[in-house]
Amino acid sequence: MAGKRPTPIALLALLALLAAVAGSVAAEPVAIDFRLAAAGKPFDCAAEARPLGRAATPVRLRDARLYLHGFALLKADGSAVPLRLADDDWQAHGVALIDFEDGSGGCTGGSAGVHTRVLGDAPAGDYTGLAFVVGVPLQALDGQGRRVVLNHSNPELAPPPLDSQAMAWNWQAGRKFVKIEVLPEGGVRRAGDTVRVWTLHLGSTGCQGDVLAGSVACRQPNLVTVRLDGFDPARQQVELNLDALVADADLGRDAGGSAGCMSAPDDPECPALFAAFGLAPRPGAAAPVQRVFRGVAR
After folding, report:
1. CB neighbours of residue 260 within 10 Å
2. What is the largest CA-CA distance in the chain?
3. Nearest alpha-carbon partner for 34 in 185, 241, 174
4. How far apart are CA 285 and CA 174, in angstroms?
5. b (16+ CB within 10 A) / e for 66-100
6. 197: left (phi > 0), else alpha (psi -120 to 50), else beta?
7. Does the pLDDT of residue 108 top 90, yes or no?
8. Fewer C-beta within 10 Å: the chain N or C terminus?
9. What are the domain boundaries of the chain?
10. What is the pLDDT of residues 188-198, one digit of tens each?
């Protein structure tokens, strides 16, 4: 006796299942590794002082962490294929925290956990580059399609890695996108005093709105877009190059504001650092090419 024909609903369910199976088979794992470098060599909490900046000031590392999102693999025709990140203690809602410090050496305010690899998957294919964004997006959609507030959310209620108090800020409850702190020999000399730590905290500024309602908007989002053509995750890693970042900065002197740059629009130390990240000097102005991130051999 001939079998019954499947109902339309059953057929749709079967097609959806086959598509899901095919998609899972076609996807392959991708690992993107990161390293921090100074004076042409890997830089960590235990490293000796390295000369950095236009005055070649010897500095040791105190802290280095950054949030990343928007990962995509690039094809030869210029199209981008999103990299779907796995969720764990270092990655959530497509946002990853890279943490170079381990709490040892000069990193006395840090923690033991280190995370320098972003894990995800993408459809199998021929890729010729990598793109990502430095920072935390305003929001994302969860697995059920619901809106989730990310950057301007309460760290005490957020999932890891967005629960990091070390990366929390007090400007409309946003996050530090980049936190780099170094210890210059002799300190940072200012008009009225000398302080121990040179600081770069990159984050959004000019933010207004209702944090609880998730309606915050920022005049200067300060999200850094990175595109690395010719990048091969199997043979290369992404380097955050401190030499390029602080090439035009004097790490032993400060002309005003915070000792370094905390993203204040009127801080005299910020424009050169923003230019290195490829950020426009003001809203509407042309943005330079970023020179902080590059692909290097493993």
Report:
1. 24
2. 95
3. 241
4. 24
5. bbbbbbbbbeeeeebeebebeeeebbbbbbbbbbb
6. beta
7. no
8. N
9. 32-297
10. 999 999 999 99
Pairing mode of beta strands 260-261, 198-202 = parallel
Q: Check: CB of residue 228 under 8 Å from CB of residue 293.
A: yes
249 exposure class (CB count in 10 Å sphere: 0-12, 13-18, 19+): buried
CA distance 117 to 115: 6
**At which residue do the structure tokens 């920072």 appear?**
135
- 3 state SS of 155: coil
State yes or no: cis peptide before 281, omega within 30 of 0: no
Reference 290, options 278, 282, 298; nearest CA is 278
Contact in structure between 277 and 290 (CB atoms under 8 Å): yes
**Chain centroid to CA 34:** 11
Residue in 83, 128, 93, 90 with CA at minimum distance from that of residue 111? 90
Structure tokens at 85: 């990140």
Residue type, 115: H
pLDDT, tens digit, 9 for 90 and up, residues 222-235: 999 999 999 999 99
pTM > 0.85: yes
CB-hemisphere CA count at 13 Å for 174? 28
Band (pLDDT 50/70/90 cuts) for residue 4 is: low
pLDDT (0 to 100) of residue 252: 98
Q: Which long-range contacts (CB under 8 A, 24 or more apart) does 213-220 make?
A: 214/138, 214/139, 214/147, 214/149, 214/152, 216/138, 216/151, 216/152, 216/172, 216/173, 216/174, 217/138, 218/172, 218/174, 219/283, 220/263, 220/265, 220/283
